[in-house]
Amino acid sequence: PQPRDAGPQQYVAEPPQKTVATQSIFRESEAQTEAYSPDYIIAPGQAPEVLTLTHLTVGAGLPASQMEIEMIEKTRQKRLFESMLPPPTDEFSYGLRSQLMEEQEFKEWAEREKQIRDLQEKRLELVQQMLSERTAEE
Hints:
Helices cover 48% and strands 3% of the residues. It contains 2 helices and 2 strands, in the order E-E-H-H. It has a two-stranded parallel ribbon. The longest helix has 47 residues, at 91-137. It starts with 56 loop residues before the first strand and ends with a helix.
């Protein structure tokens, strides 16, 4: 088919006022920035405690809740325990060190098992509550 001739082009007068908008590739929530973290230099032999918390970021652990505070306290206790262990310089010190570390590991496992049991009990309570609500509706 042959293209049809549209005839003479007609020009439309521009309006005296225009609405102009800009578009960005960023959404408003993405425009928010992370808190400023300046570069730092650590002196040899130093281990600032704040560097052990680098995994906590705004929205993922910050601001700190009770759970994060307990985790920080446990980390402090663990570092204190490790600093108090005897150095593995001789056979007696090495044996004592491994025995203390093993006892500490058993304590940590017992604490973790308790946390898991508590979580399972909470889930069971929720399921029981949902079932009782469901049977009450029927």
